[in-house]
Amino acid sequence: MTDLRIELRGSGAAIVEQISFALRAGEVLGLVGESGSGKTTVGMALLGHVRRGGRIGGGSVLVDGADVAGASDAQLERLRGRVVAYVPQDPGSGLNPALRVGSQLTEVLDAHLPQLSAAERAARLAELLEEVGLPGEERFLRSYPHQLSGGQQQRVLIAMAFAPRPSVVVCDEPTTGLDVTTQARVLQTLRELCRAHGVAALYVSHDLAVVGEIADRIAVMYAGRIVEQGPAAALLSDPRHPYTRLLLRAVPDAAGDRTPLGIAGHAPPPGARPSGCAFHPRCPLASEVCARQDPPAVDLDARFALCHHVALAPGISLAGALPAASELAVVAPEAPVLELRGLSAAHAERTTLHDVELAVGRDECVALVGESGSGKTTLARCVAGLHGRYDGEVRFEGELLPGSARGRSRDARRGIQYVFQNPYASLNPRRTVGATIARQLQLFGDVSRRDARRAAVETLARVALAPGIAEQRPDELSGGERQRVAIARALAAQPRLLVCDEVTSALDVSVQATIVALLRELRDESGLSLLFITHDLALVRTVADRVAVLSDGRIVEQGAVADVFRAPAAGYTRELLANTPRLEDAARLREPA
Predict the structure, then answer these.
(1) pLDDT in tens, 263-277
(2) Predicted local distance difference test score (pLDDT) of residue 301
(3) Which site from 33, 390, 403, 460 is most exposed, i.e. has the minimal number of CB atoms within 10 Å?
């Protein structure tokens, strides 16, 4: 890819520009940056795809000698899948829910390798399944996508991508939403397949710790440009662009050596980017020249950075300034806000929770961790009254609660508020943000419509959102802003317990760090209690006081975060911690011998 520019039709404003990199056979290039930086736009350009409203304004994209940027529809049809393959973020959208897994794999082989005989096709199918660690028996092949776990679905997509032995594969955040154990398996599978078959990979992600596990080189994007690029070990251990250093500082750490800090401000969208260096409004090193002149590409021995102040960047500390919540003194609650006694729950005929005992104290954050399917969300829904099929007791401030939210008192419904994983799906797209929060205030606050609108703006201010957000709808906001709105809606009821169900899983690390800091502030201000469900153990170290580890519906270990992470007693906990990626480990493993 050489000097690629993709721009908006009409205005000609750049979406991405000056994008240049080369991919060698068997190499993985990690492409990282915040949401809106242009990562996916660059990845899709390798497939010859430009989103609606955009066009290629210059440069070239050469894949196996063919210029994808100037290819016809017929040429692209021959290239896609066979020469350049794609692994999407959401396996649910990449697999046809109406077709069996075996049929979908066979379709790929028929489309790209029609010359294979029936015997050769069956052999290739068996080889593919073995390579990605999936069973080859008929029962599995006759399964529908919904009958597989998230990790199995993702590995089916990887098998489909590698089936025709492409030259390049584009991986667009393929492990987002996966638990750490499944994520580790998927990353290992991708890495081994690339090396075994000489496939070059572009791995798009917002998570530098994950990219450090798989990438040979890393390119960091901001506001449509690559601002730093180089070998993974060098970039992770000694980042030279201020933005890269701040991104690294936002990554949580399971060992507790540092506390993640968000980056102030927001990345500018196309058409609204400032003159000079686009990062200068957010940069702690910015000077007058940064606002006036485009930054030079400074050569740094096998890598480069676009910055006027490369020599000063190492002065930005990577250590967090705040103590992690898990290092504070932790004692078991004597009068818990939430108490679960012998909680067992089922879906259809399958029991998903077994005799769970858990308590959350006032002004305490308890994290609930475990792999996908361990029962975390079922437990959270029992607490919120959204899953009534359970045995045992759910007590809130000493009161025994009915299973269904409809049967609970108004005060109990108000006292327990739920923040869902996907804020876009949980917010009404037809309502403005102000109307959404005002409705919550009217429902629980007995206030007039006028007072509710005014209070809605004040509630938005509590989550650091500007008053103008109240007039916007969810689709006009970024992912981080939508999640803040979801938290604001919950806070409008003045709850005593907030149930946070994977609320940061789809957010980039900077926004994630900001949301975590916000939750910490809310606890300090109002004594709010949190039940924090997540699969990200590094995040737990930052946000929680105590942690409960759930496996197959049973709590196998719980205690103070620092104690559990320092000396885990359960083998399952040790496995989760071992599979949690760390920046320091990635940099050390990739240093040349």
Answers:
(1) 888 888 888 899 999
(2) 83
(3) 403
